Every structure is written in structure tokens, then in C-alpha cells.
Automatic annotation (TrEMBL):
Coiled-coil segments: none
Molecular function in Gene Ontology: ATP binding
Signal peptide limits: none
Parts of the chain that traverse the membrane: none
Species in which this protein is naturally found: Microtetraspora glauca
Species lineage: Bacteria, Bacillati, Actinomycetota, Actinomycetes, Streptosporangiales
InterPro entries: AAA+_ATPase (IPR003593), ABC_transporter-like_ATP-bd (IPR003439), ABC_transporter-like_CS (IPR017871), ABC_transpr_LolD-like (IPR015854), MacB-like_ATP-bd (IPR017911), P-loop_NTPase (IPR027417)
Name of the protein in its database record: ABC transporter ATP-binding protein
Source organism superkingdom: Bacteria
Amino acid sequence: MTLRIDDVVLTYPDGDRTLTALDHVDLDVARGEFTAVVGPSGSGKSSLLAVAAMLLTPDSGRVTVAGHDVSGASPAARTRIRRDHVGVVFQQSNLLSSLTALEQLLVMAHISGASPRAAAVRARELLIAVDLADKEHKRPHQLSGGERQRVNIARALMNRPEVLLVDEPTSALDHERGIRIVSLLAGLTRENGLATVMVTHDLGTLPLVDRVLTMADARLSEDGRKTKADLLAAPMGAGE
Ligand SMILES: Nc1ncnc2c1ncn2[C@@H]1O[C@H](COP(=O)(O)OP(=O)(O)OP(=O)(O)O)[C@@H](O)[C@H]1O
Ligand SMILES: [Mg+2]
């Protein structure tokens, strides 16, 4: 498995107690598999992505990313594995306001030490893939919310990751734009053999994913009811 999380527990300090955000969570995602994680606010979805992205170290359990067991890895090793194998798209577009769309992508290649010429080729390919070839010289304030989100996605793919982690990519978008972003993620996942995990509140996008997992009270479970119609017919948490 390209992304594997085994029996992970994550707690946060909470006054003189602790708050359990991930309670013995398991997750396996193979290459080319598009997995959605749904569930109520505060249930632990972003915490799960942060552990998968190696931004947080769990209290216990094992995390394997692209064949590397990162559980006991040093911060430097985790940073390197993230840079080389993981793309992360946060809910808030964290683009640099002074850079053009093309430059946002080139920064990633610079960090990884790729040659500038190869980086420019890759960046232009990706801007074409997200349908922004004609916007490469635009800065974030000159782009729409959906366009900024597409730059974010292209940037996350710049270093050819095997694992793509996406937190609520459609929350700032209307339904139609949301569907377009998730269709794009589905296509990129298949074409590039990515192991993609997308956190979403947007049930309308679920027919586009391969698998839906539900997070509730820090626990993750497989939800066999994949489509919007199924989920609406039997609301989450209502039991079978
Ligand atoms: N840095 C932190 N310190 C302490 N508690 C935190 C921290 N980050 C998150 N939490 C708590 O951990 C729990 C899980 O938070 P998380 O952000 O993973 O939820 P979520 O499912 O992503 O919610 P949302 O849908 O609102 O984004 C919540 O109770 C939250 O308050
Ligand atoms: Mg969240």
C-alpha cells in the first residue's frame, strides 16, 4: 500500500487532560485509488490528513508512506519524504500573493532541487492539466476561487507525489465548480496512479470517488453507502 496507517492514536493536550483526535485508526490507500473521508466537524478528519502528511506525529501506531515507515523517522527525514512523495492541498489556498500561477509551481521544484528547465516543462504541463494554461502569469488576486484551488492542486503535483492529501477542496466553491475540481482530482488520481485521500463535506461529489470512509468521534470506518443518494437515504450515523 502506498499510504498505510496502522492503529494510530493521536491526542492533543487539552488543559490538564488530553483530547483524542484519532482513536486506533487504520487506513490503507493503494495507487490509483481515490478515497473520500466524510464525517462531522471535529471528528478528526484534518488530524488524519496531518498524520498522513507527517505534519503531526501520532502518540502510537505506525505510518507508512510510499514504502517508508515514518513512525520513528527524524523531522528531517519526514520533511524529505513529504517533499518527494506527498502532495498536500489545504482547505485555505496558501498561495504566495506576489507570485504568478507558474511561479507558485516553480518554487516547489526549486525546493526539491530540480533543474529549472525541467521544472518549467513540468509546471506548464500541470497548468494545462488543470486547464489554466492561459493564466500562468496571473497572481492569486487575479484568479477566481476555483482557479486558485486548481493552482493549489497543480502545485501539490509538481514533485510527482505518490500520495495526494486534500482537505475540503470544494468548500469555497459552488456546486458545479466543486464537481469540476473533484472530477479533476479523480482524473489525476487515475492518470498518475496517486493514492488520494480527500476530506469533504460535499456529498454531491461522492459518486466520483472509489471509496468513502466515515470519521466519527475520532474513529474511522468504511462506509459501503457510496453515492449521494445512498447517503441521503440512510443518513450517516443512522446505522444499517
Ligand atoms: N492543535 C490542536 N490542539 C488541540 N485540539 C485540537 C487541535 N487541532 C484539532 N483539535 C481538536 O481535535 C478534534 C479533531 O479536530 P480536526 O481538525 O481533526 O477535526 P475535523 O474533522 O477536521 O473538523 P472540521 O470538519 O471542522 O474541519 C477536534 O475536537 C478539535 O477541536
Ligand atoms: Mg478539518
